Structures are given as C-alpha cells and as structure tokens.
Amino acid sequence: MILSVRDLAIGFRRPGGELNAVDRISFDVEQGETFVIIGESGSGKSLTGMSIAGLQPQTSFVSGSIRFKDRELLNRPDAELRKTRGREIGLIYQDPLGSLNPVWPIGNQIAEALTAHGLANRADAAKRAVEMLDRVRIPDPVRVASAYPHEISGGMRQRAMIAMALAAGPSLLIADEPTTALDVTIKAQMLELLAELKREMDLTIILITHDMGVVAEVANRILVMYAGRIAEIGPADSIMRRPAHPYTAALMASAMISETTPKHDLNAIVGVAPGLGAFPSACRFHPRCPMVQDGCRTTEPPKRPFGGVQLACHHPIASADAASLVGA
C-alpha cells in the first residue's frame, strides 16, 4: 500500500459555523494501481486529491490522517511537503494554460522540477527537459522546450504538464481532470500515454474525473464521491458492471448514449448537486434518488460491504440496469 487516508475531513470556517466540504472519508491506494475518484462538480474529489499533496486552500481546515509510504503528510510544515511534492508525488492540473507560467519557456519550467530538488544542475536539467518532452510524444521537443505556453496547442500543453510532473521520477501521480478540455481523439491519446508511462515508470496514479468514459478506460479501482462523502468504492470491474449505489448507476446512465438516441435527448440525473453549505441531512443523495424511502431522509447510511464493494446506501440496487434510475 502506497497511500492510506483515514477520516479525512476538509472544511471552511465562516461567521456562524463551519462548512464541511469533505466529510470523514477513508480509502487506501495500492502500489501500481490506477485509482479513480469520480463525481459531479462540487463533490469534493479535487479537494481530496490536492489535500494529499498539501495543496488544499489556505482558508481551509483539515483533520484525519494521510499516510504516504508510512509517513504522515497531514499538517506537516510546508517546507517538508515541498520536498515531497514533485520528487515523490507528481501533480497534473486541470487547466495547463492557467497552471504554466506564461512568461517562462516550457523547457525551463520542466527543468525547475529537477533543479529545485537538487537532482541536476541547470545544463543537465535542460537536457532532461527535452528528453521528457520527447518521452511524452511531443514532436520537435527542442523547439517546444524553447516555446512559451501560448505558442503550443492545448494537447501539447497537457503533455508538457505530464513531463513536468514526472521529471523528478515520483512514484505517485495525481491527475486532476487531465482530459477535460481535450477533444475525443486527443483524450484517447492522453489516456494511452498515461497508461504507457505508468508501465515504464512503475507509477501509481490517482485520477480525478467526472467522465465515466475515462473511468472505463483506465481504472483498477473506483471511488465514487457525492456531496463530500463516499457513495461507493471498489474494483472497477464490479462497479462498472454492477453499480450498487443509485448515484453510481445514474452517473453511468448519464454517460450512455446509444446510436439510436437523438442527439438532443441526453440522459441527466434528476435535480442538481447541492452546493457547499446546502448538503442534505442523512443520505445526501436522497433528494435526487428514485429509490428514496423514509429512512434515507432521517439516517445517514454507514459504509458497508455489498457485492464486492463498500457502499453507503440503505437500499442498494442489485443489477447493472442503470437506465431506469435516470430522469427523462
């Protein structure tokens, strides 16, 4: 096991009380797996991922435990965390154009990942930057190393972010929505590239996404989050073939569009995801759940084993027919 998270809670203080964005979640990540965290916007998945690297907002408060390679990371001094970020934990952000420095050449930014950790001098780091750009399949890596972020395409910027994240040889890669802004063809190429790099570099990957198509392509295990809590967690094969939580089934059904489905007739989950400070009591999915019963409105469901997964639901489903759980 490379990562163990226990009772992680992340919140924000405001006049009159506290807002909990992530509510006491626990999970483990095994060495060498692709662990996918999925959920709608506002579910707490990105906040969870960034907290592993100590990058949660400064205005937040965090409790629980995050153990990486048997070392506690939570609430460690930032100077200590900086030694871990990049060197042992690499990060790919959702918006490469916003994450890259617009006035610094791409190669310099990749080289900094090496010089900052004392892994190479400036000349050797520059050579290594070109090698990393070539490794992530960027044509003419020498030219791109001297280019600025706005001078290359979105797909190439994302590849440059991957090169930067992996330059120092981390063992854990956290990728936050790395394919969101990419078209279908480039997305497929990016997923293929991540799978190839995982094999070559013996990586463990935590992939954060809202795209069920991405999940189906790469996941070994899946954590489904809703409104700051874990809805379902387990092996990808079990969850993709037989989702037990109505929310998981609805997510899957919303991504299923057959060839006979009119292009304007998209499946959607009934209602909207609750915002921070508006989380329902008891089961947080109950206002949108087609299987809701009285107990769902009054009692929080505990996480328990069910059909090979861990599930937080009073009334799990026992088939993979998710279509009936989606509102028209």
TrEMBL record:
PROSITE patterns the UniProt entry points to: ABC_TRANSPORTER_1, ABC_TRANSPORTER_2
UniProt GO molecular function: ATP binding
InterPro entries tied to this protein: AAA+_ATPase, ABC_Ni/Peptide_Import, ABC_transporter-like_ATP-bd, ABC_transporter-like_CS, Oligopep_ABC_C, P-loop_NTPase
Compartment(s): Cell inner membrane
Primary localisation category: membrane
Topology with respect to the bilayer: Peripheral membrane protein
Pfam families listed in its UniProt record: ABC_tran (PF00005), oligo_HPY (PF08352)
SUPFAM superfamilies for this protein: P-loop containing nucleoside triphosphate hydrolases
Alphabetized UniProt keyword annotations: ATP-binding, Cell membrane, Membrane, Nucleotide-binding, Transport
ABC transporter domain sequence ranges: 5-252
Protein family: Belongs to the ABC transporter superfamily.
Designated name of the protein: Oligopeptide/dipeptide ABC transporter ATP-binding protein
Upper classification of the organism: Bacteria, Pseudomonadati, Pseudomonadota, Alphaproteobacteria, Hyphomicrobiales
